[in-house]
Design brief:
Chain lengths: ~270, ~280, ~290, ~290, ~270
């Protein structure tokens, strides 16, 4: 497991040999930032089918910026993002959704939008398959009871469920979720992460999630990406690798790392 | 009865004077609307649809709005070129016809000449004659009545004109400022001197340098009054009038035909206002 | 004389002359419904004053065409000038205003003021035709000429067809731009289709009916529908119906009470909004009561 | 005659006739700066077309006053009618549009269309006086009467004073309504002060200068400032300056190049926005370059 | 400790006898909801100085609605909210802040607004005391480094810090925070909760926080309020009381309750 400060980061996937077909996304010396100013060291990373990657890092470290750059919503400062093919479908839950408070859209209609991709809106009606997928997604995201409610009247957690349902309905290959469970209650959060892990495993999709709940992230994700502006560092690896990395320990303390004796103040921010 | 529709209300008054009880007259534009822009009503479309005669000024005065009504009314009698369509400018001697090849950035709005001629009762008379001829051509059985009405109207007007001229004799050679270039025929009739216009060019609102020039000229030539139609904004005129100083005379844009005003009464009102202006009283 | 006229305009008379009113009423109906449909996008994408901006830009286009003819000796058809400038205004709408730190309404305000002012300045140098600009751009809704009716009908029907056909894509791209981009929808093309259809429809309708009723159809219809808080398809349907009623009903009102047509259509649109507000109030009152 | 006129307008002549221009220039300066200051609220509170709605409502007020006089025999001063109706429009702005599921711009659009249409309908029944409505509401900016100058100066200075004094409260209540309500600020009163000062200032300025420049001052000034992405106080300052420059500079431009005043002021406002966009572009280019 | 299903809930404060001076807010048979429809059973509760009350409950159970009703931003369906006096200052961090994305306000300016209350904006300039308080609040919320940044350019977590700083600057008696740490990283979340607990203790304010992190809530709050629409129930008490309440266990499982043997699946949603 390569990991490093300043150094480009390599992403060895569980099936490193059968590359090509499994590879969905690839960052090459990708530098993200605003107005030409880099936020983080260059990121090198490959995202393959079956991956459940959790992105962690302090506030303002550039996680959301990275997502936007991956999706082409924002220009990179330098470096490149490759998609393995034009038919790789992606889906995204933004950290704060831009859906207007005036829009009289029901959650189910919102989830139906998830079934659109490319030019397939040229088919003016949704198919039976679409409707089945939408109902399944609503069910699976726990959004069944709010399916007929106007989106704008939902509580924040309910809104996140509706957006999650939409992402599930897309049947995308690559799913990027930016703190999808921030407003969800503890039960829903675990259910969601479990569901995503299951999807990555059974449907062979790649799921990338930003989360601030380190334990939940470590429990479900099969890879962690830690980004830090202070060090600066981009660290990729399994939970232990990341949690014991000096840059991580400097930010979050030693308590997450099994190789270190627990310090005096449990879970508290350590001095490094 | 002969159904007559006119574009502006002065024409309606004239048509009524000539046609009397044998015609039913409607005006598309009320006297208070700028005849360059008119907002018509559906029932007027109905009138147009049934009209035997449509009378317009011509000279592009109504070019912005009449063609749609004329062509949309589904009435072949009033289409251009038919006997039921009469443009009355042909009966008068047009003033301000551009002589050189028109440099249109400078000239009047109306490339064919100034169409605001019905302020001059002499033109009104000529137009009435033209209207009478056309009515006779369209409705021969009432020809005598039309001739009689025209004769009566002519007599009245010919009696009134010298009196008006008498009352406004003081205007002869008097320096005046007008707002829009609508005063050519009035000046021709009464002999006043429109030294300048508040609009730098027809249809263009006044600008500071121009207003300063106008004011300078007005003071220098001792302008007697400032003249404008009631459908133009009076703000600037009022201020300039105050600074010259000279009375601001607001003249009606046409006969108030809806209220039953005749052409004679309308010119009488115009003359009265001008007379008051001469006495230093504004409107 | 007028009072008589008013009294005698009756249904009988109306039907007698129906052939006369058929075209303008058909035109008002089509323009009202299609603009009513589009108004949902106009209102929800926060570009309420788009029709004002588009017609102002068209005015500048006409003025510039005259200017080119008079001062540069180039012959440009005034309608071409109008089309070009209003398309430019439409393209402006396709930009993302958030990048410039301003709202879409601000952008419209900028286009409105700048083209309005510039048209007057250019008009100053082409006084001859300045008066014509209004005539070229705006009809009076009382009667329409065949070509205008055809323009409204063709643009209207095409717009409605493409909008119904692409409904799912257009709504998604309009109301959740990021989501649609991520899912690979051709958001720019969809935006272009939407904005151009709004621009065109506003243009041809204003040419036939005048600026004010077009403004009313393209905003108030959706406001009435939104106030009632329906689903998205219901909102579109209701807005279309509200537009159609305003167009047709306004014409009839103008006919029977002898009022200017455009203003009648506008006021009727407004009345429909007020009615919707009353219905909403009643609904809430009933809901509130029922549950106590 | 005209060509000569144009050539001879020089600074010397300008100073000669300065007495004539002093009042309108002072008026444009005051109106420009105060409306420029207020424009920040106008743009950030998403009510770009407020001046259009307020002046339209005032027009309806004048029309209704005439109507009352002619048909009901009540004497209502037309200006009183204008004030009442524009205050009503202002009060409408104080409502929370989100409750009705519509945006503030939609509300303005409703007010604009409804009062515009109604003014035409009412105007139709008072046709003798209808032409006065424009004259009563809108000045031409070329010259102003003493009372109008005084009105603009008094309202402007008072507005600016109270706005500077209450700056902290007004910005907080405007830009974070919930926060201000929770912290016990008199949000409704502050809103009332803001909306009434906007309504009044728009009214008196339009009366002196005309509708288009007032629209430009009350929106474009803030747009120029916002594009430059400064702090809040800097934005207010810059908007004020932009408004002042547009007002005064537009007048001078109109004088020296013989253009209509209002349109010149409007176009100058727009030019300032374009200039700000260029500055923004350059800044970003430089920033982008510098960091590579 | 009174707690109950359907039953009105009593709030015994640590200093129940010296009532009057300490009491800040009181809900009397308060029923919250929209358009006359109740969301929860009537709430009876008193909030006193020194309280740190954490509100927990599943998504859509009405926590945010309760806050808005307490603050008078929304009408109750029935019942009343009393404030002990007109001079009780409150401050609030909404779950989703309504600050416009166009507003060119710096974080420090935003925090300065926190110093306004009632009519004190009539003083046109901020005092030295104001400025000190603002700097202290920025520091204490960890928003020092972002003080000069435009609010709209901040990351979600940074935005929450700025809003927290504003609440700290208010020196209000009653502070209501609706998931103030949802977008914050784990370290910042703990720091924030610790800071709030400290404030409640030392400055004798009442702090009411909505949180979905049950462990952190239980650790720092001295009272928990659990609301549930399903039961329906409103349960007030210390961590053990709430965590062992049947309605709570039905929703969140038995694992939080020390009196119950841990079930097979750790932290998972139990069947009830
Ligand atoms: N439009 C912008 N212009 C300039 N800087 C920005 C802009 N948006 C965000 N930033 C800055 O970029 C940095 C990274 O922001 P980003 O939103 O990616 O953080 P994040 O890791 O997602 O944080 P969080 O955990 O709080 O969501 C932050 O310091 C933020 O202030
Ligand atoms: N404007 C509204 N009209 C009708 N119902 C609403 C409205 N706003 C919220 N609701 C409903 O009221 C219920 C409570 O919402 P509230 O926002 O208070 O939940 P919450 O407990 O804060 O949830 P979360 O943990 O997700 O923030 C939800 O079911 C929600 O859908
Ligand atoms: Mg983020
Ligand atoms: Mg909530
Ligand atoms: Zn003319």
């Amino acid at each position: 497991m390569a990991h490093g400060e300043h150094a480009p980061t390599q992403a060895p996937s569980p099936s490193a040999h059968q590359h090509g077909s499994d590879l969905l996304l690839c960052c090459e010396e990708l530098v993200i930032g605003y107005q030409g100013k880099a936020l983080l060291p260059p990121i090198n990373l490959q995202v393959r089918r079956g991956t459940f990657l959790a992105v962690i890092g302090r506030n303002g470290s550039g996680k959301s910026t990275w997502f936007k750059t991956l999706l082409g919503l924002q220009q990179p400062v330098s470096g490149r993002v490759f998609r393995s093919g034009p038919d790789v479908k992606s889906a995204y839950v933004p950290q704060s959704s831009g859906i207007d408070g005036m829009l009289p859209v029901r959650s189910r209609e919102l989830v139906h939008w998830g079934r659109l991709s490319g030019w397939n809106f040229l088919r003016p009606f949704s198919t039976h398959k679409d409707r089945t997928a939408v109902e399944a997604a609503l069910e699976s995201a726990g959004a069944g009871p709010i399916a007929n409610r106007p989106y704008r009247e939902l509580s924040e957690g309910q809104k996140q469920r509706a957006l999650l349902a939409r992402v599930l309905a897309t049947e995308a290959d690559l799913v990027l979720l930016d703190e999808p469970t921030a407003a969800m209650d503890a039960v829903a959060e675990r259910e969601t992460m479990q569901r995503l892990a299951e999807l990555a495993r059974t449907q062979r999709l790649a799921v990338v999630v930003v989360s601030h709940d380190l334990r939940v992230a470590a429990e479900f994700a099969n890879q962690l990406l830690f980004v830090d502006r202070e060090a600066p560092a981009v660290v990729l690896g399994d939970a232990n690798t990341v949690f014991c990395h000096p840059a991580f320990r400097h930010q979050y303390g030693d308590d997450y790392c099994p190789h270190h004796p627990p310090s005096g103040h449990p879970l508290g921010p350590a001095a490094g | 009865a002969l159904k007559v529709v006119t574009s502006v209300s002065d024409l309606a008054a004239l048509a009524k004077a000539v046609g009397g009880e044998h015609v039913q007259v409607t005006s598309l534009a009320p006297s208070t609307q700028d005849p360059h822009f008119v907002d018509a009503r559906p029932h007027l479309a109905l009138e147009l649809n049934r009209a035997d005669l449509l009378i317009a000024i011509g000279l592009e005065l109504e070019v912005g709005w009449l063609p749609t009504l004329q062509n949309g009314a589904r009435n072949n009698r009033i289409l251009s070129g038919s006997p039921g369509y009469l443009e009355v400018f042909q009966f008068i001697r047009t003033l301000e016809v551009p002589t050189t090849r028109v440099d249109r950035s400078q000239g009047d709005i109306h490339a064919g000449g100034n169409p605001h001629f019905l302020y001059d009762p002499r033109a009104g008379l000529a137009v009435a004659r033209g209207i009478a001829d056309r009515m006779i051509a369209l409705d021969g059985k009432n020809a005598d009545a039309y001739r009689a009405n025209l004769a009566k109207f002519t007599a009245e007007l010919e009696k009134a004109i010298p009196v008006w001229q008498q009352r406004l004799a003081g205007l002869k050679g008097a320096p005046l400022i007008a707002y829009h270039r609508t005063t050519a025929y009035l000046a021709d009739w009464l002999g006043f001197d429109a030294i300048t216009y508040l609009e730098p060019k027809p249809g263009i609102p006044p600008n500071p340098a121009h207003v300063a020039q106008v004011l300078g000229l007005a003071r220098q030539k001792k302008a007697r009054m400032i003249l404008q139609e009631e459908y133009y904004p009076s703000t600037t005129s009022k201020l300039v009038a105050g600074k010259v100083p000279a009375p601001l005379v607001i003249i009606p844009g046409g006969a108030d035909f809806r209220a039953g005003q005749t052409y004679l009464q309308r010119i009488e009102e115009l003359v009265t206002r001008l007379e008051n202006g001469l006495k230093g009283k504004g409107t | 004389m007028d009072p008589q006229l008013v009294e005698t305009t009756s249904w009988a008379q109306f039907w007698d002359a129906f052939e006369l009113f058929r075209d303008p009423m058909l035109c008002a109906l089509i323009a009202g419904s299609v603009l009513g449909f589009l108004s949902v996008y106009v209102v929800l994408r926060r570009m309420v004053f788009v029709s004002a901006a588009v017609t102002q830009s068209a005015g500048l286009g006409v003025a510039l065409a005259f200017y080119a003819e008079i001062h540069l000796g180039l012959h440009v058809a005034p309608t071409l000038g109008a089309v070009i400038l209003s398309l430019l205004a439409t393209l402006l709408l396709m930009m993302d205003p958030a990048r410039l730190r301003i709202s879409r309404e601000s952008m419209l305000g900028l286009a409105y003021a700048l083209t309005g002012g510039a048209a007057i300045l250019v008009g100053d140098r082409i006084s001859q035709e300045a008066h014509d600009i209004q005539g070229i751009l705006f009809g009076t809704a009382v009667l329409v000429e065949q070509p205008q009716l055809i323009a409204v009908a063709v643009v209207g029907v095409l717009t409605l067809l493409i909008h119904l056909w692409w409904f799912r894509g257009l709504t998604f791209a309009s109301f959740d731009r990021t989501g649609a981009m991520v899912q690979g929808l051709p958001v720019r093309s969809l935006d272009a289709v939407l904005m151009i259809s709004i621009g065109l429809m506003v243009g041809v309708s204003a040419r036939a009916l005048g600026a004010l009723p077009v403004f009313a159809f393209s905003t108030l219809s959706a406001i009435a529908a939104l106030v009632l808080d329906l689903r998205l398809p219901g909102t579109f349907l209701l807005a279309t119906i509200a537009g159609a009623i305003s167009g047709l009903g306004g014409y009839l009102f103008a006919y029977f009470y002898n009022f200017p047509v455009g203003a009648s259509q506008t006021v009727l649109s407004g009345m429909i909004v007020l009615l919707a507000l009353v219905v909403r109030g009643l609904k809430q009152l009933l809901l509130g009561r029922a549950s106590r």
